[in-house]
Amino acid sequence: MAEGFAKAYGADVLEPCSAGLGPAGGVPELTVQVMQEKNIDVSEAFPKGLDGVDRASIDLIVNLTGSPLPAKMITPVENWNVRDPIGESDKVYRQVRDDIERRIQKLILATRAEMNGEEYSEPADDAEDGEERGGMASRFDRWRARFRQ
């Protein structure tokens, strides 16, 4: 879902690729259905392991699971701790989809602001969204040089 939203909404600032520690055998049909409700087609997506992506070209890892990543990761990590909807109802899938969509939108807005040399401020009512504190602003402080190259 995250990769689908990032490609649909943020192709001007992001080059998303999705990978996992234990990729599934395919994208669940319910994921395809709830994303289609947002007019995003993920039917051709397929789960990949970490070895299936070029980690050297990645500026940020967004960890949706909340599980620790391998210690050998040198890329900055943002932990979102999103509920896994596998085996849950349509309602839960939609809630998870909407949660991921909101988080991706915030990431895109923060990235656009940084690329334009602007400060990004998260709305005060989003302070309890499960992101590690420090949030977008401190992450971008660490990356400022990368975006300005």
Provide a brief overview of the structure:
The protein has helices at 2-10, 29-36, 90-115, 135-147, and strands at residues 61-63, 77-79.
Strand order, largest beta sheet: 1-2
**Level-1 CATH class name:** Alpha Beta
What string gives the helices and strands in order? HHEEHH
User: How far do the termini sit from each other?
Assistant: 30 Å
Query: Compute the gyration radius: what is it?
Result: 15 Å
Helix content: 25-40%
CATH architecture: 3-Layer(aba) Sandwich
* Total individual domains: 1
* Alpha plus pi helix count: 4
Judged by helices, strands and strand pairing, the structural class is: mainly alpha
CATH superfamily: Response regulator
| CATH third-tier fold name | Rossmann fold
Mean pLDDT: 80
Structure, described:
The chain has helices at 2-10, 29-36, 90-115, 135-147, and strands at residues 61-63, 77-79. It has 149 residues and is mostly helical. It has a single domain, classed as 3-Layer(aba) Sandwich (Rossmann fold).
